[in-house]
Design brief:
The protein has 485 residues and is of the alpha+beta class. It has a domain of 305 residues: Beta Barrel (Catalase HpII,  Chain A, domain 1), CATH 2.40.180. It is built from twelve helices and twelve strands.
């Protein structure tokens, strides 16, 4: 660990001045397209594994219906949110770290990716079963994922890599606490909540913007397994989540989630006590209460797993009029990265595949490329603008201007950020028994991790709550040096 490090460079051999912070307009963003180092990291990560997904490789999915019981017309002009609207949806659950052949019952974040086939085009909401994430700057996303994959020499998963990264990244503490809690090992996919996690925009007919977070609360209840229970399940069935979801739907036991939003007026973002575009933070419900919108029900299994689940491609770049983005740096990077991953993994025309194709008409000027299988007829209107009746733009669908400010720079996203209050608040909400399981889960996940890294992580636990660090140290059987600082 004491070896003097070598200078980091780009793939072109250029020295890297900052590998921690994306290039943004002001400390809150948005990110700039000129940040070629960020784009290189994301594009390279998308091509590190073929043919399975680089992340979220193991998944299960089902079709269903989103029914709007409380319209959002006040906040959004999107047809999908109109009172009484019913929209077909595809929901893919997944683990994050495991390969396609990994066991389902592992401690991990669960992906919760939704594709809504709306009358105005596809709306994709790419979320998880957690409202936050491990990093807030996309520059660190490929590095984080590397720690969750296999060591390049041993080809084994590395506890040391995971905790080394987390202990050097205090912004991860909120998500780490959730992962190591009961919710990190759900009993089934029917027993998890879903979150859009990112902050998005809603835009109404009056051209007003609101910030929004999306929530799906399971009506099956939150249920979890202990590590020992999960080990027993894996020993008998590596496909436990897939089997449970498929069987329940085949039996007519359709799982349901109640759909909520949190709404923040656009102007509130400038003075809110948390950065509302920080993916490691939540908006406390006392500040922005949950507003009920409708019900999501899963009621149909795919007919062919490969065609409809493996080839399903979700991307937050798919939005509809009335829904938009925000300065959330992670969201902005994912808008590029997800679609780019699909172009690499599935092919140039991945959105023409039946599972991905919108129900509404598709009219673009994209040309040719591998796997063009729609057999188009030749036309004189193969460019734009043209004089031959090709599809045209319509200014009615333009969004209101997004207010941004600040000089372009690599702002240190850890400067002045409180990464301990919210994890501490979450810890204090846990019951005594839940806390003990949290301590035990962390201790198990730290097996083999060097003492230096353990002590560094205990400092973060201590800053969130001294009892948090004390409990983990007790479970590990080590001295808590953080208590003396």
């Amino acid at each position: 660990m004491a070896t003097k490090p070598e200078l980091m460079t780009t793939t072109g051999g250029n020295p890297v001045a900052d590998n921690q912070n994306s290039l943004t307009a002001g400390p809150r963003g948005p990110v700039l397209m000129q940040d070629y180092q960020l784009l290189e990291k994301l594009a390279h990560q998308n091509r590190e594994r073929i043919p399975e997904r680089a992340v979220h490789a193991k998944g299960s999915a089902a079709y269903g219906t989103l029914t709007i019981t409380h319209g959002l017309e006040k906040y959004s002009k999107a047809a999908v949110f109109r009172q009484g609207a019913q929209t077909e949806a595809l929901l893919r659950f997944s683990t994050v770290a495991g390969e396609a052949g990994a066991a389902d019952a592992e401690r991990d974040v669960r992906g919760f990716a939704l594709k809504f086939y709306t009358t105005e085009g596809n709306w994709d909401l790419v979320g998880n079963n957690t409202p936050v994430f491990f990093v807030r700057d996309p520059y660190k996303f490929p590095d984080f994922i590397h720690t969750q994959k296999r060591h390049p020499r041993s080809h084994l998963r590395s506890n040391t890599a995971a905790w080394d990264f987390w202990s050097l990244s205090p912004e991860s503490l909120h998500q780490v606490t959730i992962l190591m809690s009961d919710r990190g090992l759900p009993r089934s996919l029917r027993h998890v909540n879903g979150y859009g996690s990112h902050t998005y925009s809603l835009i109404n007919a009056a051209h007003e913007r609101f910030w929004v977070k999306f929530h799906f609360k399971t009506l099956q209840g939150i249920e979890y397994m202990t590590n020992a229970e999960a080990e027993a399940v894996v020993a008998k069935d590596r496909e436990s989540s897939q089997r449970d979801l498929y069987t329940a739907i085949e039996k007519g036991e359709f799982p349901k989630w109640r759909f909520f939003v949190q709404i923040m007026p656009e102007a509130d973002a400038a003075h809110y006590r948390w950065n509302p575009f920080d993916l490691t933070k939540v908006w406390p419900h006392g500040d922005y209460p949950l507003i009920e919108v409708g019900m999501l029900e899963l009621n149909r299994n795919p007919e062919h797993y490969f065609a409809e689940v493996e080839q399903a491609a979700f991307s937050p770049s798919n939005i509809v009029p009335g829904i938009g983005f925000s300065p959330d740096k992670m969201l902005q990077a994912r808008v590029f990265s997800y679609a780019d991953a699909h172009r690499h993994r599935i092919g140039t025309h991945y959105e023409m595949l039946p599972v991905n194709r919108p129900k509404s008409p598709v009219r673009t000027y994209h040309a040719d490329g591998a796997m063009r299988f729609d057999a188009p007829k030749g036309t004189d209107a193969y460019y734009e603008p043209n004089s031959f009746g090709g599809p045209v733009q319509d200014a009615r669908f333009a969004e209101p201007p997004l207010k941004i400010s600040g000089d372009a720079d690599r702002y240190n996203h850890r400067d002045g950020n409180d990464d301990y209050t919210q994890p501490g608040d979450l810890f204090r909400l846990l019951s005594p028994d839940h806390k003990e399981r949290l301590f035990s889960n962390i201790a198990a996940a730290m097996a083999g991790v060097p003492e230096e890294i353990v002590q560094r992580q205990l400092v973060h636990f201590h800053k969130a709550d001294p009892a948090y660090a004390a409990g983990v140290a007790r479970a590990l059987g080590v001295t808590n040096h953080a208590a003396g600082k």
